Amino acid sequence: MKPGRLEAHLKAKHKDQINSNLNYFQILKKNYEKRATLKSHFTAHNVNINCTLEASYQISLLIAKSGKNHTIGEQLIKPSISTFVKTVFGKDDKDVNIMPLSNNTVSRRIDEMSKDVEIQLIKKLKTRLFLVQMDESTLRDSEAVLLTYVKYIDNNDFAEEMLFCKSLKSSTTAKDI
């Protein structure tokens, strides 16, 4: 407000505060600026959710790399993290409890990450020369699979990635492939 209007407002609406000193109004202003708003509640909550979500993806990646059953997230990892947070930091483990690590969630996150890796590989192959290598193999239960690898140059280094692995309906003889 303009100073003239501010003075008129003070006299009309806050007659009891006319003789208050400047410090009183400065404290009021600081308290007003520090107050909790709806936006600040959501922003703080979103930061925790984003960190928890990122941790969930990282743990899902570790579970995928270990080759363990996806239920290990809720059965072992989440209780372990909860115990660690309580013991070492002496804090409430509410953020650990909201971290999604169920079997379905871990499976979905692994699928999302693998799809993202596939998309990145295809983008790289569209802009580079590459070699394709195909190999057939047999798994433990006599299932025939066709493995396809691509080799390309990435940042002046040779890179090799698996392009796909398909199950074959027949045997691994050259005639059938």
Describe this structure in words.
The protein is an alpha+beta fold and 177 residues long. Helix content is 56%, strand content 18%. It is built from six helices and three strands. The protein has a three-stranded antiparallel sheet, covered by helices on one side. Strand 1 (130-138) and strand 2 form a beta hairpin. The longest helix is centred in the first third of the chain and has 29 residues, at 38-66. The chain is elongated, with a radius of gyration of 30 Å. The model has no long low-confidence stretch (mean pLDDT 83).
Look at the structure and give the mean pLDDT: 83
How are helices and strands ordered from N to C?
Answer: HHHHHHEEE
> How many runs of DSSP E, i.e. beta strands?
3
Which percent band covers the strand fraction?
A: 15-25%
- How many helices? The count is 6
Protein name: Zinc finger BED domain-containing protein 5-like
Task: Please supply descriptive tags for the structure shown above.
177 residues, alpha+beta, 3-stranded antiparallel sheet, 3 strands, 56% helix, 18% strand, elongated
State the gist of this model.
This is Zinc finger BED domain-containing protein 5-like. With 177 residues, this protein is α+β, with helices and mostly antiparallel strands.
Secondary-structure blueprint:
Elements: H1 3-13, H2 22-34, H3 38-66, H4 72-89, H5 94-97, H6 103-126, E1 130-138, E2 144-154, E3 157-167
Antiparallel strand pairs: 1-2, 2-3
Protein name: Zinc finger BED domain-containing protein 5-like
